[in-house]
Structure formats: structure tokens, C-alpha cells
Write a structure and sequence with these properties.
Elements: E1 12-13, H1 24-38, H2 43-50, H3 52-59, H4 63-80, H5 83-91, H6 93-110, H7 121-149, H8 154-183, H9 186-191, H10 194-210, E2 217-218, H11 229-258, H12 263-290, H13 295-314, H14 320-344, H15 349-367, H16 369-381, H17 385-405
Antiparallel strand pairs: 1-2
Helix pairs in contact: 1-7, 1-8, 1-10, 2-8, 2-11, 4-7, 4-15, 4-16, 5-6, 5-7, 6-7, 6-10, 8-12, 11-12, 11-13, 11-14, 11-15, 11-16, 11-17, 12-14, 13-14, 13-17, 16-17
Length: 411
Amino acid sequence: MPEIAVDAEIDEDPAPAPTQLKGKRALAYLAVCLILIGLNLRTVFSSFSAVLPEVTSDAGLPGWSVVVLTTVPVTLLGVFAPTAPVLARRFGAERVLLGAMAVLTAGLLLRPAELPGAGHLPVLLVGTAACGAAIALCNVLLPGVVKRDFPHRLGLMGGLYTTAICASAALGAGFTYPVFTATGHWTSALWFWAVPAAVVLLLFLPPAIRQHPVRHQHLKGGVNVWRSAVAWQVTAFMVLQAMMSFSVFAWLAPILRDRGVDGGTAGLIVSVSIVLQMLGSLFAPALAARLKDQRVINMVVALMTGGGFALSIFGPTELIWVWTGLLGLGQGSLTAVALTMIMLRTRDAHTAAHLSGMMQGVGYGVGSTGTLMVGQLHQATGGFAAAGVLFLVVGLLAAFFGFRAGRNRFV
């Protein structure tokens, strides 16, 4: 899922200094670390869904727990997003990112463990929640660090780390089931993703520790985005795209397997769909920025996404690659143009940062209801047909609010 380099620390006094580095090699090393952090921010979502039937069967998970496990990490993206700037003011963005990677690694290690006498469920819940909280901090702070430390390479670095975030979802979807097949254990398939997180934690340790934290104050002022109708229209657009985006990560693989696609092929289909998301996210923002307003493009990509999701459930399985490809292109473009609205609907960096915080808090928090509703509908009906209807409705609503948000107006 692409992000935009909006600085969450923009209201700090004094302004945060760049990461303390010596020479171009150190700067290149930091760039690699930041990209590798991005490469670990979505595997927790797509890896679990890739082996969901095996986890449910072997661990004896009740239906409610599957719904919770697919919803909680997304909800926590919204819950913990507002805490990231507060922690950064106290400890520094680099050290908070380091701590978040430590929590993410611990959560990934804990997730497949088994508690004697209690089974897998308690640690699975705690580990998944820890991962969601850690990713929330990284989501908010990583764009600002990229913007602050690479002001002359912002386009390149922004493209590389957003591509890494998308690639992480594709890797989780594509490699988890093969690891399960090779080892014969779903626990090994989930533990596998703690390895790259631990490697990045060790690599990022030197530059993070070297940065001496400075206590900052929060300055108030500027536009109150919470009172702006335009801001709420953009946020509603973000909520609806998040409902579909994280439902793809959590449920597309189980949907395909429910339709008779084997686990390995389902993971490959989801990976290709996410790669197409990357293509959409690369080209859609540039097209949107060139247009006089974004009403048409917002509506088109919203309908592509909702329609692609529904066709993946209802359409002939012989064309499943076509439906998931349409979904991938639509979803990547939809996410990218929703985030591009931050820049296009604001006049200055301070307002953009505040709108970004509003969109992330409300967007991820409310957007997590998408995965919740899919899980509850599946549990109630025993299939995904109701979810297909749901996302036709969500796609239409996203088109409506995309039309409203796409008008050439400012917060």
C-alpha cells in the first residue's frame, strides 16, 4: 500500500535535524535501511491469509478469532498512528522506528508460538496486535524521515520505499505457502517472516543509536482540518479504499481457495495482483496531478476495484487472472490517488501533514471494518457471496466520495 512523504514532525520546535551521518556511504546505508523497513510492513497481513485454512484447522481457531486476527492489526494502524509524533518528539524518529522494528520482530516471533495448556490463540492474538502497533508507528514516521534526510532525492526515495511496501505484501502472499509446503508446518511459514525483520533491526541499530534525541515542543496553529468539509470528503474516500485494500490482503487468498484454487496458485495470483497494484500506484498519481480535477479518475479506479473484487467472487474461475488483475490495477491506482488528494487538496505542508494524520487515523481505524464485515459475513453465511455484494456497494460509495473529493477545492 503506497504512502506519501508527509512529515509527521512538521509542527515541532525546534525542527528535527537530519539523521547524523558521515559521508555519502552512510547516507546510502540509511537509504537501504529505510527501504528494507518498508519491505517488512505488509508481510504480517498477506502471510497469515496465505495459510489461513491450515492455521484455522490445525490450531482449532473459533470463527470469531479469525475475524479478530484479520481485523485487529488494521484497526491498530489507526489507533496508534496519533502516538507516533508524540513518541518522536520525546525520543527522536529514528529511535522510535528502531523500537517499532523490535516490537515487529517480537510480534512475528510470538505469533506462531504455542502456550502450554492454552494453545496457539492467545499468543497469536498478542503477536498480531504487536505487529499492528509497530507498523502503525512506521507508517507515520517513515515518510517524514525520507523527506527530511533525502530532500534532493525525494522522488527516487519515495518511489523506492513505497514500492518496497507494496513488494512486502506480494512477498508475503507469494512465499508463505511454499515455505509451508517445504516444511509441512504453518508455524514455520509464519516464523519465516521474523528473519528479515530481525536483520533490518540489526542493520538499522547503528544509525538510530547514533542520533541524539532532542526534546521538542508541539506548535499549534494553522487550518483545523477536522472542521473542513473537503477534508472529510477526502477522508471518506480514504476510508472506503482502505476497506477494500486491507480486505484484499486478508481475504483474497481465502476467497480463491474457497473457489477451488490450490494454495500455491492462490498465493501466486495474489502476488501478481499486488504487483499490478504497484504499477497502478506508479502511474495514477502523475495522471491525477495533470488533470484539472480528479473526479473522473477517482470514480473509474473506485469502480475498477469494487468490480474486480466482486468478479473475483462471482466471475468464472477460468478468467480469475483477469478479475484479480483488474482488482490489482484498480486497487493500486485507488490507494495512490486517495493519498495524492493530500497534496492536491491542501495549500501548504502544515495542512497536508494534518490532513495526512486525520486520514490515517480515521482511514485505517474505520477502514478496518471492511475485513471485519467480510469475516462476519463469511462466518454467518459460510461463503463469500455476501462479501461480493458488500464490495460492489463499497466501490459505488468510493466512486461517490471520490467524485466529491476530486473537485478542484482546498481544505
